[in-house]
Amino acid sequence: MTLEMQGISKSFGANDVLRKIDFSISGGEITALLGENGAGKSTLMNILGGVLPADSGTIRLDGKQVQFRTPADSLSAGIAFIHQELNLVNDLAVYDNPFIGRELNKKGGWLDAKSMCEKCSAIFERMDIQLDPRTMVRELDASYKQIVEIARALLMEASIIIMDEPTTSLTDPEIQRVFDMMRTLQKQGVAIVFISHKLREVMEICTRYTVLRDGVVVAGGQVADTSVDELAQHMVGHEVRTESLRTQRELGDEVLSTVGLSQEGGFQNISFSVRSGEILGFTGLLGDGRSELFQTVFGSGGKYTGEIRVAGKAVSITSTRKAMSLGIGYVPRNRKENGIIADMNILENGSIVTWPRSKKACLLDWKKIRTDFTLRADGLRIKMDDDKNLIGSLSGGNQQKVVLAKWLGADPRVLIFDNPTQGVDVGAKEDIYDIILELAAQGVAIVVLSSEAQEVIRLCDRTLVMYHGRVQGELRGEKMTEQEIMRLATGGEMRTGEAV
């Protein structure tokens, strides 16, 4: 199948989101659709997916002009959209999920589980995947959940699959599993639109690329003819920094430490300390226990043994309220579930932590709250029309900045960032790095939890690498390399002469 989108334009009020966009893809291609958050990628794909109507322009499939008024129209034409937040029901079996809403029934109305399993097995065989359709979805890792979503698309006879940030929550081995499956489908003539901010992955898996910036196509061509640096420059409109951001800073006293901190099933015997003005990294593979560790430090992880110390004094942290009273802030990895409140507006989300101290005669002083938030929003360069709009009206990068604004208003002594740039575009990523560096310069102790080796290498003064719930080793300076991080993250021992 060949898809051509020509002259696609879309406006929301006075905001021109897309301006005469041309985009195409053919069977057997994996094409990257790139751009910063707010560049127009999602709007373009939502038009293709029948979610939004275009103001002008045409869509042609195999040379025939089509119009998609609903997602069902797009799907019936062979186009499937796999969103970043997967739409699977964990409490159902694998075979149930692709058939939700279109179940196969026997005579008498009983579900035909055998037929649904057989059809799923046939699709998995086509994808060259070994997976029992009777497995419960909750038992699958993130990569196999992605595969189930793709299987659903193929069961609906999709010949064009749009994959929005499919590797955001995957480990390196899981990413390779998904990539292997994508290559298998590519050989079978399936076209894949790959939306991602991970440019190294684009270079690895994609054949062509199209870059949007401010609603306009600014670059496109063969991936073999470009580089990561060139793609990043196209996306942001200027050269992107790749050098180390580590600087010499005068560190203050110890702010936060743990001694032998353990939690059954999560982490064991963790001892570390972080000082005022220091940026300490924690990395490893997904499931290594680092998120559970710092959720516990922040009072949301349940019971623990061992000690947590703040400014050298042992404390008992049994709630997030207690952690906040001690000056500990936490920016969670799952922004949608734990970082924002979808039913609140931008101002409410960006100020909620400060409400207890923003009262006037027992009522919230909204004038002061808005003034303080506006100052933080300006400093963070948050792009928004009106702070009364719902938080969901913002791009992912700007939502993350609102979460940051919330914690900056609380004046934390230590701020924990759990995958701070997950799902964030290149430009917003650099903005967040600048914010972290500025906070450290102001004397805030920073802890960065990240699955991206390059992130901790560029940003952190030193990094602790975790493996199966334990600290496997500490790296700093020139010894912080991708190879050494991966060696420790997969169970390798510290080399002689390296100190934890």
Q: Label the structural class.
A: alpha/beta
- CATH homology superfamily name of the largest domain: P-loop containing nucleotide triphosphate hydrolases
Low-confidence stretches: none
Q: Tell me which oligomeric state these chains represent.
A: single chain
Describe the sheet with the most strands: 6 strands, mixed
CATH secondary-structure class of the largest domain: Alpha Beta
Shape: globular
Note the gap between the termini: 55 Å
CATH topology of the largest domain: Rossmann fold
Radius of gyration from the alpha-carbon trace, in angstroms:
24 Å
Describe the structure.
It contains 16 helices and 22 strands. The protein has two domains: 235 residues, P-loop containing nucleotide triphosphate hydrolases (Rossmann fold), CATH 3.40.50.300; 236 residues, P-loop containing nucleotide triphosphate hydrolases (Rossmann fold, 3-Layer(aba) Sandwich). By secondary structure, the chain is an alpha/beta fold. The mean pLDDT is 86. The strands form five sheets. The chain has a six-stranded mixed β-sheet with strand order 6-7-8-3-9-10, with helices on both faces. A six-stranded mixed β-sheet has the order 16-19-20-13-21-22, sandwiched between helices. Strands 2-1-4-5 form a four-stranded antiparallel β-sheet, covered by helices on one side. The longest helix has 16 residues.
Chain-wise SSE layout:
Blueprint: E1 2-12, E2 15-26, E3 30-34, H1 41-48, E4 56-61, E5 64-66, H2 71-76, E6 79-82, H3 113-126, H4 142-155, E7 160-164, H5 172-187, E8 191-195, H6 199-205, E9 208-213, E10 216-222, H7 228-236, E11 254-263, E12 267-275, E13 279-283, H8 290-297, E14 305-310, E15 313-315, H9 320-325, E16 328-331, H10 335-339, H11 346-349, E17 359-360, E18 363-364, H12 366-380, H13 396-408, E19 414-418, H14 426-441, E20 445-449, H15 453-459, E21 462-467, E22 470-476, H16 482-489
